Amino acid sequence: MSKTTIKDVAKVAGVSVTSVSRVLNNRGYISDQLKGKVIQAIEDLNYTPNEIARSLYKNETKAIALIIPTNLNPFFSELTFYIEKELANLGYHLYVCNSLNDSNKEKIYLELLSEKKVDGIIVGSHNMDIKEYDKISGNIVSIERKINDRIPMIISDNYLGGKLATEELINNDCKSILCITGDQDESSPANNRLVAYSQVMKKNRLKEYIYRMPFTDTREEKTKKIRSIFEEDITFDGVFAGDDLTARYVIQVAESLGLKIHKDLSVVGYDGTSLIRNLFPEIVTVVQPLERIAIKSVEILLDMIKGKEVKSEYIFKVELSN
């Protein structure tokens, strides 16, 4: 007995092979009538895989979207890798959406959910002025972003990370410590790193020095700003950088000015991605458990898709690597 083909499905349904393909892949405009004919033909012919028909009946796409600022950043690149790996193991496809911190791009990507082109969205990028999140009733999980009370959030312990980083610098006898942080909103979980820095500095009766550097700044812009900081009258002997790339830029600028790392200047970064730790093992950094965060984000999103109850917040412990 010959195996049933897509041509057989098209013939029984009375439609073209292209139409069957569009239904199976959920691409292009598909009328309910056409979809019904194809699904019925699939069932009548027991067309393999039957999972396709069941997915169509459940209005599932077996696809998830991930919105990130850019996968050129090591943090988001590694996060994407682990999320895609976990989803693939569970039979899902991943659409990676680089928002480039553009609100309009992010709004377009959100339409994937409202148009039912994906079953859910994992958000690693959130422009604070976007109100569409409050209107969407679909399944969304956020990583390191506080969007609203309805959307579950997967985060690392940012306060602990800030505390570990600042205490590490103080333990290295640093007295003048600069904290380079992003321009995130005060409601952002990452802001707790700055809160911890401030509290540890006050506890040790040290003056705070805070410099905000937008995430969207280019490497050249960040390097120029860092150089201008070191050329000012204030002499820093410690720097807590908000991410490992910024920590690397600080080290490069400092060395170009004749400073010896660990002797004249101590630097602590944040994220601890495999790429940075392998390329620059000399960087002391706060390590986030990216693989565990990625796996948990997938788990929570799929639970939501299945209609299960989930918590509003999941926090993972960080550690200092040196």
Mean pLDDT: 89
Give the topology string: H per helix, E per strand: HHHHEHEHEHEEHEHEHEHEHEHEE
Strand order of the largest sheet: 2-1-3-4-5-11
- How far apart, in Å, are the first and last alpha carbons? 64 Å
Give the domain tally: 3
CATH level-two architecture of the largest domain: 3-Layer(aba) Sandwich
Binned, the helix content reads 40-55%
* C-alpha Rg (nearest Å): 24 Å
Which stretches are poorly predicted, pLDDT < 50 over at least 5 residues?
none
Q: What is the name of the CATH class of the largest domain?
A: Alpha Beta
CATH fold description of the largest domain: Rossmann fold
According to CATH, the homologous superfamily of the largest domain is Response regulator
Percent strand equals 15-25%
Q: Largest sheet at a glance?
A: 6 strands, parallel
Coarse morphology: elongated
Kindly list the characteristics that best describe this protein:
single chain, 322 residues, alpha/beta, 434 Repressor (Amino-terminal Domain), Rossmann fold, 3 domains, six-stranded parallel sheet, 13 helices, elongated
Account of the protein in words:
The chain is α/β, with parallel strands linked by helices and about 325 residues long. It is built from 13 helices and twelve strands. The model has no long low-confidence stretch (mean pLDDT about 90). The relative contact order is 0.11. Helix 1 crosses helix 2, helix 1 packs across helix 3 (about 30-45) and helix 5 crosses helix 13 (about 290-305). It folds into three domains: about 5-50, 434 Repressor (Amino-terminal Domain) (Orthogonal Bundle), CATH 1.10.260; about 65-155 and about 290-315, Rossmann fold (3-Layer(aba) Sandwich), CATH 3.40.50; about 160-285, Response regulator (Rossmann fold).
